[in-house]
Design brief:
The protein is an alpha/beta fold. Among the domains are: 3-148, no CATH class; 173-316, Rossmann fold; 410-503, Arc Repressor Mutant, subunit A (Orthogonal Bundle), CATH 1.10.10; 504-617. The chain contains 24 helices and 24 strands. The strands form 4 sheets. It has a 13-stranded parallel beta sheet with strand order 9-10-11-13-15-17-18-19-20-21-22-23-24, sandwiched between helices. A 5-stranded parallel beta sheet has the order 2-3-4-1-5, with helices on both faces. β23 (780-783), α24 (785-792) and β24 form a beta-alpha-beta unit. α15 packs parallel to α17 (397-408). InterPro entries: AAA+_ATPase (IPR003593), Apaf_helical (IPR042197), LRR_dom_sf (IPR032675), LRR_R13L4/SHOC2-like (IPR055414), NB-ARC (IPR002182), P-loop_NTPase (IPR027417), Powdery_mildew-R_dom (IPR008808), WH-like_DNA-bd_sf (IPR036388). Residues 1-148 form the RPW8 domain. Keywords: Plant defense, Repeat. This is Probable disease resistance protein At5g66910 isoform X1. Belongs to the disease resistance NB-LRR family.
């Protein structure tokens, strides 16, 4: 035992229990490698500390000796935790369990022994007991929160879960039976399901993972979606995190291979494990070999467009046979309207099937486009195919050619919108709000009212199966809250969009995708002296990119999408020349928030209206210093801001951000407080702060936002109250405090907000309603049954009060496989 620990334990042994608790809290917060469990331990002890101080002031503390012993043991474990290397999985697992056991002992002390001490002391000092009971109530509330929120970052959980199917399978019964037989064969360890794109490989394997026989054999099944840019370390990190190891950093692939083997050795002790790698690209043999581990009870299942028979066993999935293809088409496309001749309908069906060539994806897309249409429209669709001149080439001419008519049938405005979606990465789960921001600025007039129009366009594309919209558990979309909607797109449809965009020469394209691997640029970028005509520019760089930018000229770009994977990222200097830029979105696909540099280059953009930063490390004070006179919307998602905001100098917000109307802050877990300048943006109409667990209060200065119409504080679980200055928000129309579990009351004079017409407050179990709410007329309250009871009692005293009790959809966290 080292000198520090000896000194620390000696001081605890001779000191008050409260002093030992303080030392333990301090040391627990320093243990980075065990961040999740150590923070939980520190949180429990911080709630316990005031009660222990009170007890020590009332007696000699003898009865706290058991707790003192636990604290001494905890100090030993916490100090040993600080010496564990991040990648040492065995020690991490061992000490994680020890810290969790200590935390359970602390909670047991709170629930049993502490209550006995309180009852005994109640006979001695009734006044003091009132104070202790108040602290004890805080502990119970904390325990409730700990039982509801097991992790400070729920969005990162279960990244490798098997997705759910929401369709009836046609034509896959026999392949499913055959594939299951192959997988359960003891001689087959690694199996590749391959076939052309759009033939149903992912659907088949997903259904297989949900088969009862498969789930009975394999005790753990992991499902990892691949991409053209493979990142072995990130996949292993996700697998470890799914199994409770938290965020682990590997210096190289060799360490990650060791980590994967140790994880699998631990898991297979409890039963067989199946790892699914979905959509592995051609030329990935070296990547696949990293998962080829000789371990009893461990199998790997891969889907790919390529045949890896030289490496592993393979199963070739063919397109649907004629009978199955016909059944699937009939399922998607109901018969034409007013049809009277069965032979004519059958002839049309056969012509459509011939065009679809047995590919389920093509059948689905075409079938949806013909559903319920008149007979002449069916005939027109078939005739247009026979006259079509387009022959789509690489990489998949057959499938892409059969998708082309679905694009041709779109209205011109939907074609433009569809092409934008192709500017995002393959298999990326795209926030609907991000797509809408780009559409509004590129094709609309940039007004917030246009957002709902373009949301209809998004639904139009989804209804034609050219993309999918996935809700994450909220039904507030009527309030223009699209931050809990995801958009996904089959990679073949993405390729269709890219193909359409690349029909013109590079310099003349309206939408341009630029991929930079390491520091290698496409040939056309090198020594380019001419300007590029694109309006939309999408740039992807991998984790080996060193921010060595070449000088390029984009005078007409209005929307810039930057996708990055490196930990440090410098914005390209050529941004200063993009004077027409209206929308900038920066998305980090790495494991940790990326540090941005050269941020000041944005200050030279006179037309920049929307900035969206995702999973990056920024200082919120940098925003007003950019002096962006046209900025209307700022979105910050999963960003890291560091510690408390220290303001060195005040900035005149009327000049720095005179046009800012909307601020969105979502899943920013280290947001302790709002910077001062947010309360001085008098032009602000919407302030949305959601899923920010550390935010406990709002500043009183928020009352300065006289034009604010919407205040959303959804899922800020530690927010305890709203400032009384909220009563000065005279234009507030909508207040959303749903899932604010720690909120205890509304402002006393909330009744002064005469323009407030809607409150959403689901899952606010302890929130008290002040008497002044009776002054709110024509109010709509959206709530759950428990909260609804509070409002129902006021119906007789409130004019035109409407209480809408709604059951909320459970969040689908499996869809956050985007990191």
């Amino acid at each position: 035992m080292n000198d520090w620990l000896s000194l620390g334990l000696g001081s605890v042994a001779g000191a008050l229990v409260s002093e030992g608790l303080k030392l333990l809290i301090s040391e627990a917060k320093k243990v980075i490698a065990f961040k999740s469990v150590s923070k939980e331990l520190a949180s429990t002890m911080e709630s316990l500390l005031p009660v222990i101080k009170q007890i020590e002031s009332m007696q000699d503390g003898v009865e706290l000796e058991d707790l003192k012993v636990t604290i001494v043991k905890a100090l030993v474990v916490v100090k040993e935790c600080s010496l564990v290397k991040d990648w040492n999985l065995r020690k991490r697992s061992k000490y994680t369990k020890e810290v969790e056991e200590i935390n359970r002992k602390m909670l047991k002390f709170c629930q049993v022994q502490l209550q006995l001490l309180l009852l005994r002391n109640q006979l001695k000092s009734m006044p003091s007991m009132e104070g202790i009971n108040s602290y004890f109530q805080i502990i119970n509330e904390k325990l409730d929160l700990l039982s509801v929120v097991s992790s400070p970052s729920p969005v990162f959980t279960k990244l490798c879960s098997v997705p759910k199917l929401n369709m009836n399978l046609v034509g896959l019964d026999w392949p499913l039976m055959d594939l299951k037989k192959r997988l359960l064969d003891d001689s087959v360890v690694n199996l590749v399901v391959y076939g052309p794109p759009g033939c149903g490989k992912t659907t088949l394997v997903t259904q297989l993972c949900d088969d009862q026989d498969i789930k009975r054999v394999f005790k753990k099944i992991f499902f990892c979606v691949m991409s053209s840019t493979l990142n072995f370390r990130a996949i292993v990190q996700n697998l470890l995190q799914d199994n409770g190891y938290g965020a682990i950093t590997f210096d190289d692939d060799s360490q990650a291979e060791t980590g994967l083997r140790e994880l699998l050795e631990e898991l297979t002790e409890h039963g067989p494990v199946l790892l699914v790698l979905d959509d592995v690209w051609q030329g990935s043999e070296f990547f696949l070999r990293k998962f080829q581990i000789d371990l009893p009870g461990y199998k790997t299942l891969v889907t790919s467009r390529s045949d890896f028979s030289s490496l592993w066993s393979t199963y070739h999935l063919q397109p649907l046979k004629d009978e199955d293809a016909r059944s699937l088409l009939v399922q998607w496309a109901s018969p034409p309207q007013h049809i009277s001749v069965d032979d004519e309908y059958e002839d049309l069906l056969q012509k459509v099937l011939k065009r679809c060539n047995g590919f389920p994806l093509v059948i689905e897309v075409v079938g949806i486009s013909l559903r319920g249409k008149a007979l002449y429209l069916w005939k027109g669709q078939v005739e247009s195919w026979s006259e079509g001149k387009t022959i789509l080439s690489n990489p998949h001419p057959t499938v892409l050619q059969r998708l082309q008519p679905s694009f041709n049938a779109l209205e011109p405005h939907l074609k433009e919108c569809f092409l934008v979606v192709g500017s995002f990465l393959e298999d990326q789960k795209i926030w609907a709000s991000l797509i809408l921001d780009i559409w509004v600025e590129l094709f609309g007039r940039g007004s917030s009212s246009s957002t709902n129009v373009y949301m209809k366009y998004l639904n139009d594309l989804a209804s034609q199966n050219l993309l999918k919209i996935v809700p994450l558990g909220t039904n507030e979309h009527e309030d223009s809250f699209y931050s809990e909607l995801l958009v996904t797109q089959h990679d073949i449809l993405r390729e269709l969009a890219i193909y359409q965009s690349e029909l013109e020469p590079i310099l003349e394209r309206k939408k341009l995708n630029l991929e930079i691997l390491e520091d290698n640029y496409p040939d056309w970028c090198v020594n380019l002296c001419q300007p590029i005509n694109a309006r939309l520019l999408s740039i992807f760089t991998d984790d080996l990119f060193s921010s060595r930018w070449v000088e390029l000229d984009f005078p007409n770009v209005e929307a810039l999408i930057l996708n990055l994977s490196s930990l440090d990222y410098a914005l390209p200097s050529f941004i200063t020349g993009i004077k027409k830029l209206k929308v900038l979105t920066i998305t980090n696909h790495g494991f940790y928030p990326a540090r941005l540099t050269n941020f000041s280059c944005l200050s030279s953009l006179p037309n920049l209206k929307r900035i969206r930063l995702e999973k990056v490390s920024v200082t919120l004070l940098d925003i007003p210093q950019l002096q962006l006179g046209s900025l209307k919307k700022l979105s910050l998602v999963m960003c890291s801001f560091g510690d408390v905001f220290y303001e060195t100098e005040k900035i005149d917000l009327s000049k720095a951000l005179p046009s800012l109307q909307e601020i969105e802050i979502d899943y920013c877990y280290d947001l302790n407080e709002l910077p001062y300048w947010v309360s001085e943006v008098v032009s602000l109409k919407t302030l949305s702060i959601t899923n920010c667990n550390k935010l406990s209060t709002l500043p009183e200065a928020i009352g300065n936002l006289s034009k604010l119409e919407m205040l959303r504080l959804r899922s800020c679980i530690n927010l305890s109250e709203l400032p009384e200055a909220t009563e000065r928000l005279s234009n507030l129309r909508f207040l959303d405090i749903s899932h604010c579990l720690g909120l205890r009351k509304l402002p006393q004079e909330i009744g002064k907000l005469q323009k407030l017409k809607k409150i959403s407050m689901r899952k606010c179990p302890g929130c008290k309603l002040p008497d002044s709410v009776r002054n709110l007329e024509n109010l709509v309250v959206k709530c759950d049954e428990e909260t609804g009871f509070l409002w129902e009692r006021l119906k007789r005293k409130m004019r035109n009060l409407r209480v809408q009790e709604e059951e909320e959809t459970e969040q689908n966290l499996n869809l956050f496989q985007m990191f």
